[in-house]
Amino acid sequence: MSSPSEKKDEIPFEEAMKRLEVLVQQMEGGELSLDQMITHFEEGSALVEKCGQRLNEVERRIEKLVKKDGEIRSEPFDPEPTP
Hints:
The chain is mainly alpha-helical. It has helices spanning 4-9, 13-28, 34-65, and strands at 67-68, 71-72. A hairpin with a 2-residue loop joins β1 and β2 (71-72).
C-alpha cells in the first residue's frame, strides 16, 4: 500500500502539464524575483522529469499492445493516415 507522501508525488500527467504551463507563464511574466524564478525552475524541472517518465511508461505499454506474430514491434505513430 502507498503512503500518503507517495500518493502526493503521483500527480496526474494532465495536472503536471497544467502546472508546468502556469510556471512558464509566471516565469515569462517578468514579475518574479530571482529566488522565485529558481524555485519555479526547480519545480518545473521535476515536473518535466515526471512527465517524461510517464510518457516512457505509456510508450512501453503501447509497444506491448502492438504484438504481431508473437513479437513486440514498435511502430511509429502517424497522426495523419496516408491516403
